[in-house]
Amino acid sequence: MNAIETTNLTKYYGKARGIIDVNLKVEEGQLYGFIGPNGAGKSTTIRTLLSLIKKTGGSASIFGLDCETEKVEILKQVGYLPSEVSYYDNMKAIDLLNYSASFYGKDCSEKIKTLSDALEVDLSRNIEDMSLGNRKKVGIVQGLLHSPRLIMLDEPTSGLDPLMQKTFFELIRNENKNGATVLFSSHILSEVQRLCDRVAIIKEGRIIKEQSINGLREEAYKKVSMTLREGTTPDLGGIEGLSDLKISGQAVDFIFRGDLNMLIGRVSKHQLMNLEISEPDLEEIFMHYYQ
Predict the structure, then answer these.
(1) Could you tell me which residues are beta bridge partners of residue 62?
(2) What are the sequence ranges of the domains in the chain?
(3) What is the distance of C-alpha 49 from the center of its chain?
(4) Per CATH, the architecture of 2-216 is what?
(5) E strands, the chain, where?
(6) Domain 219-288: top CATH class
(7) Confidence class of residue 56 from pLDDT cuts 50, 70 and 90?
(8) Do 291 and 202 form a contact (C-beta atoms < 8 A)?
(9) What is the structure's pLDDT at 283?
């Protein structure tokens, strides 16, 4: 069974674009990345899946249940962390978490303690006295306290320091090992690379790429760096598959996708001091999709 499945899921805000014909299939048990720049439609997709906003068209289901007509049953099985968390100020963290736990009809006290200890959350403090980072940590505990089958994370690491981010990723991996499916939304590819095994890239409301993380690395993209002899002018015009060209003095760098034999034939016509062809990092591959 797919944990998440959408068919041509569409949302307009009046005449403004939200998401258009989004097709996703997230298998149960996957660590699935959902990546794109701010405003691409990541949060709109998640909020539509949770029926926090009403879709304009298409269909969406979670564990085979319709996201609109069966949302009450769905919400019992989902843990959600929005990109920005906001709470009633005049509450202690422990009171908020106990209140949240009461909706699930089971004792979550042990899980609350385990998560709050790992994240170093002072449950006795009033939420209004907490920093942004500590509020985010309370949100993480709230999203995981009932051991959900599906965890939906929207820009979850904002506000967390690097050490706490490491702890957070360990917690999510542990939830996944215990059977939870994870949808991880971010605009930072390195975060998705760190956690996920598959990724969808969204641009201007549309899915433009869906692939395994390993597949992104293994595509025929190469990073080329060469140093020319003094006084030599690079001649790379008309080469198909060349992008992100940077020239600084005698140093030339670019990303290439295509026939390496053809490229080397062109490059070898230069007076070379050095030539290096290597695998680009995922951030460089990711930027290619937004050119």
Answers:
(1) 4, 65
(2) 2-216, 219-288
(3) 16
(4) 3-Layer(aba) Sandwich (3.40)
(5) 2-13, 16-27, 31-35, 57-62, 65-66, 78-81, 150-154, 181-186, 198-203, 206-212, 221-228, 242-248, 251-257, 272-278
(6) alpha beta
(7) very high
(8) no
(9) 64
